[in-house]
Amino acid sequence: MSTGFKQTPQGDLSASPHRPGNPTCKRCGGSWVVRHGTTRTGTQRLRCKACGVTFLDNAAPPRMRYPAETIAAVLQGFYEGATLKEIADGLEVRGEKAPTLANIHRWIVRFTASAVDAQKDVEALPEPSLAVGDAWVAIESRIESRAFGGQPAWSWDVFDSRTGYLLCSQLFLSRYAGGHNSALGEAERVTGKTPTPTPTKKVDVAQWESASETAQRFERYLHTRGRVLAAAHSARIVRLVMAGWRIDYNLFRPQPELGGLTPAKKAKVNERFGSWAQVVALS
Fold it and tell me: For residues 52 and 130, which has the higher predicted lDDT (pLDDT)?
């Protein structure tokens, strides 16, 4: 005799999809989730009947064992200048099981790429009130990285003086006389403006030869980026990390000189993320 109720598959956790505490699928967000055994350590394994993905009943992103907050802390530490070994040691001090250095590297590459791709889409949207100023600072930096076989590379970075926003960064494998104009041209394309630039040539980021207090502040940030890039093992990774560092600097790093705002908020730039934790959660 029919009861008038739909029968729920054995092990289904979603007989009442709106019941508080029911797990949802980490991939599709669906509520038709069933138990699917346990791991060797006893952690409950779950399976989504809608999309077929199998995942653990923990705070980790799909196909990952570590919680999202741990991965976000790794990304934040990396872009603040910590080495992979320092990051692993810091997690152990916090009482967490440290991931391998290879895992840390994979997280940095994966989530940096996700952030860069997403922010590119956002920056392509029309900017109704891009509040950059009329004076820019262009800085040439020497980059030392094992990616270049002992030879230095060079970058040109263009900052907006008023908001501190890093408009663009360009990498050159050798010192290029036209790098200054190339970077300014890219900044003009990004903003749709042609302001009066204030170039500051640099031979080495560590040797400050600035022309103004504003340029000195930008150079200090670039000095931190130099530490981040030092361990990159290929030119592709150097370019990826430079793009990731630009996101970290513009979107996630409040500055006292801006009243505690980030450069992106000061410049009223469209933002896809507000932190590395959001990057991990939305990737």
Answer: 52
